[in-house]
Amino acid sequence: MKRILLVRHGESEWNAIRRLQGQADIELSARGREQASALAPMVASFNPGLVMTSDLKRAANTAALLGHEDAVHEPLLREQNVGAWTGMEIAQLMADAPGAYAGWRAGTFAPENGEIWADFRTRVGKALDRAITADAETVLLVCHGGVIRAALDGVLGLAPARIIPVGPASLTILAFPKDEPRLEVFNATTFAPEINAPD
Question: Could you tell me the pTM of the whole model?
Answer without folding.
Answer: 0.96
